[in-house]
Design a protein that fits this description.
Number of strands: 14
Strand content: 15-25%
Oligomer: single chain
Bound molecules: pyridoxal-5'-phosphate
Radius of gyration: 21 Å
Low-confidence stretches: none
Helix content: 25-40%
Strand order of the largest sheet: 2-10-9-8-5-3-4
Order of helices and strands: EHHEHEHEEEEEEEHHHEEHEEH
């Protein structure tokens, strides 16, 4: 069977080249005589795979030397708790912008360990936009300031970052990491579940400025203590060895595309093609505020939920799959991460025109 264009939000499409290399190396990696899955994580065979994956993250994101890079388990969701445990250690307070369901969940979780204050929210408007903020209301004594740079479910993205002064900015970049340039030095912590824009599920990337860890709350489980993970090269226990290897293959593919600098213009073009098709249509309507539109998750609807469902079903029959919106918003969502080729977006746009012409 032919491969489909997979618009899933995560786990999501991966570069075909990475999958093909993995298939070739599945049973026998290089001259080791075994699969990567069968290697000890502390072996001479495996450690270079881990090191190369970390180095590729450093290179592709231009991560400065005073930041550590960790490859952890537990998903982005585990970091919702790990962040306050590691950082809510001075004033015991943090500021959050509530821009979506994951941001909200992170804020609620942090409230178990200290005072998590909401400084701006678009929850009342079902998160159709990134809420406006007023820097004068920010707590200068906060231990950190928290944002979600791209809101996967609602299809919104920050086009500018809040100025937080000396308060470290912590960002959940799960759904737009490596898709656009960011100046890492503006952040205290960047983290992301791998399954959207890095590789397969099972890995969580965490980039942390070295002066921040080392003061965690006494109740912090050792496995969630960033300082201990740094001292152990993310290997307090067995890391997700194969998933890390797969991330490495995907990052090598990204490097061949010209890195983040090479892929960002393609991502902008892909998103523009799709939003133009929506804006020029009589049937489709975008659900996110145009000023907040995401380049990675494009959310839209037709004139009725029944027609949305019909569209999703017919699209699937044309090899355009996983277009159903998240259960919290309904409608249609096309996730077009780095690995979605522009041909996939063009095929979707063509199908939208065809669908509109016969309904
Ligand atoms: C998917 C997602 C999460 C949750 O990730 P898990 O790895 O499943 O815990 C958190 N934040 C954002 C922005 C996401 O897109």
């Amino acid at each position: 069977m032919d491969r489909v264009y997979n618009f899933a939000a995560g786990p999501a499409a991966m570069p075909l080249e990475a999958l093909q290399t993995a298939a070739l190396e599945m049973c026998c990696y290089g001259s080791t005589g075994m699969s990567v899955m069968e290697m000890s994580h502390r072996s001479k065979m495996y450690l270079p795979i881990y090191q190369e994956t970390v180095s590729l993250v450093r290179e592709l994101m231009h991560v400065p030397d005073n930041y550590s890079i960790l490859l952890l388990q537990g998903g982005a969701t585990q970091q919702f708790a790990a962040i306050p445990m590691n950082l809510m250690t001075k004033s015991g307070r943090a500021d959050y912008i509530d821009s979506g369901n994951f941001a909200h969940g992170a804020m609620v979780e942090a409230g178990k360990y200290g005072q998590a204050r909401c400084v701006a929210s678009s929850r009342e408007e079902n998160y159709v936009r990134i809420p406006a903020w007023d820097e004068k209301t920010f707590d200068p004594e906060a231990d950190y300031f928290y944002i979600t740079t791209n809101n996967t479910i609602f299809g919104t993205r920050y086009s500018a970052l809040p100025e937080t002064g000396n308060v470290p900015l912590v960002a959940d970049m799960s759904s737009n990491i490596l898709s656009e340039k960011y100046d890492v030095s503006r952040f205290g912590v960047i983290y992301a579940g791998a399954q959207k824009n890095i590789g397969p599920a099972g890995v969580t990337l965490l980039i942390v400025r070295n002066d921040l860890p080392g003061h965690c709350l006494p109740i912090t489980p050792k496995i969630m203590d960033w300082q201990k993970q740094i001292e152990n090269d993310s290997m307090i226990n067995t890391p997700p060895t194969y998933a890390i290897y797969m991330c490495g293959l995907c990052l090598k593919w990204l490097k061949k595309q010209g890195g983040v600098e090479g892929i960002e213009p393609v991502n902008i073009e892909k998103a523009k093609l799709l939003y133009d098709a929506i804006d020029n249509s009589r049937l489709f309507r975008g659900t996110a505020d145009p000023a907040s539109r995401s380049r990675m998750n494009v959310t839209f609807v037709t004139d009725s939920p029944d027609r949305d469902a019909e569209f999703v079903k017919e699209a699937a029959a044309h090899g355009l799959v996983n277009l159903k919106g998240h259960r919290l918003v309904g409608g249609i969502r096309a996730s077009i991460y780095n690995a979605m080729p522009i041909e996939g977006v063009k095929a979707l746009v063509e199908f939208m025109k065809e669908f509109e012409s016969h309904v």
